[in-house]
């Protein structure tokens, strides 16, 4: 699923972080049936999640929020600061927009609600890693719009360096990502095929050194490259 180019396919490497062993076991069993997903590690707390992430090199972490020693949001911040290309799906019982905004600010690509996690986790892992929108469009637009009004650190040295290599078309597509648009909507606006849009999104993510389209949009908004919801 992940590779250096859109056609370079290998199983997605996934780390499961949850302090409840039965949850990790159930999720591992579900994902073991998916030939394009490989569970490469598990963690029982946030601190361990960071350590295992360093040693196992996952593409994506499924991160429970409420864990001992270090909670999931703090672990997400540390992982994203050290390994920005690693995507994080937050596992949570809350779907309140304020709560989800904090997850996105921490660096999460999206979220999995606990009550249907086993049904949706494989689908959402694929969604994030192929560059499709991991959040409902309406929710994404609200979160991104609110991000534009929030103060906070904007240290994106590597991403800013990568942004200088974006083509004009890629900057245009990035602007649409910042508005919460789907690939289909971007294709319609720019009179492109959906496949071409996906290729542009993949290249944007790669050049910026971020993990997913959500964080590409966050980068664009926080650095003033694009405005949400116009």
UniProtKB/TrEMBL annotation:
<dbReference type="InterPro" id="IPR039420">
    <property type="entry name" value="WalR-like"/>
</dbReference>
<keyword id="KW-0597">Phosphoprotein</keyword>
<dbReference type="GO" id="GO:0003677">
    <property type="term" value="F:DNA binding"/>
</dbReference>
<dbReference type="GO" id="GO:0006355">
    <property type="term" value="P:regulation of DNA-templated transcription"/>
</dbReference>
<dbReference type="InterPro" id="IPR058245">
    <property type="entry name" value="NreC/VraR/RcsB-like_REC"/>
</dbReference>
<feature type="domain" description="Response regulatory">
    <location>
        <begin position="13"/>
        <end position="129"/>
    </location>
</feature>
<dbReference type="GO" id="GO:0000160">
    <property type="term" value="P:phosphorelay signal transduction system"/>
</dbReference>
<feature type="domain" description="HTH luxR-type">
    <location>
        <begin position="159"/>
        <end position="224"/>
    </location>
</feature>
<dbReference type="Pfam" id="PF00072">
    <property type="entry name" value="Response_reg"/>
</dbReference>
<feature type="modified residue" description="4-aspartylphosphate">
    <location>
        <position position="64"/>
    </location>
</feature>
<dbReference type="Pfam" id="PF00196">
    <property type="entry name" value="GerE"/>
</dbReference>
<keyword id="KW-0805">Transcription regulation</keyword>
<dbReference type="InterPro" id="IPR000792">
    <property type="entry name" value="Tscrpt_reg_LuxR_C"/>
</dbReference>
<dbReference type="InterPro" id="IPR001789">
    <property type="entry name" value="Sig_transdc_resp-reg_receiver"/>
</dbReference>
<keyword id="KW-0238">DNA-binding</keyword>
<dbReference type="InterPro" id="IPR011006">
    <property type="entry name" value="CheY-like_superfamily"/>
</dbReference>
<keyword id="KW-0804">Transcription</keyword>
<protein>
    <submittedName>
        <fullName>Two-component transcriptional response regulator, LuxR family</fullName>
    </submittedName>
</protein>
């Amino acid at each position: 699923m992940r590779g250096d180019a859109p056609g370079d396919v290998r199983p997605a490497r996934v780390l499961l972080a949850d302090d409840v062993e039965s949850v990790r076991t159930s999720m591992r069993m579900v994902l073991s049936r998916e030939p394009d997903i490989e569970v490469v590690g598990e963690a029982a707390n946030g601190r361990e999640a960071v350590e295992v992430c360093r040693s196992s090199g996952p593409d994506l972490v499924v991160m429970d929020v409420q864990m001992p020693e270090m909670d999931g949001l703090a672990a997400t911040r540390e992982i994203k600061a050290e390994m920005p290309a690693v995507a994080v799906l937050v596992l949570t019982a809350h779907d309140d927009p304020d709560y989800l905004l904090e997850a996105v600010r921490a660096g999460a690509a999206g979220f999995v609600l606990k009550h249907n996690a086993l049904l949706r986790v494989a689908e959402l892992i694929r969604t994030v890693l192929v560059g499709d929108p991991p959040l409902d469009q309406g929710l994404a637009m609200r979160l991104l719009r609110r991000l534009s009004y929030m103060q906070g650190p904007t240290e994106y040295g590597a991403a800013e360096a990568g942004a200088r290599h974006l083509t004009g078309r890629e900057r245009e597509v990035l602007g649409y990502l910042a508005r919460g648009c789907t690939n289909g909507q971007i294709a319609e606006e720019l009179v492109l095929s959906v496949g071409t849009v996906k290729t542009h999104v993949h290249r944007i993510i790669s050049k910026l050194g971020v993990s997913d389209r959500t964080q590409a949009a966050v980068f664009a908004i926080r650095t003033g490259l694009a405005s949400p919801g116009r």
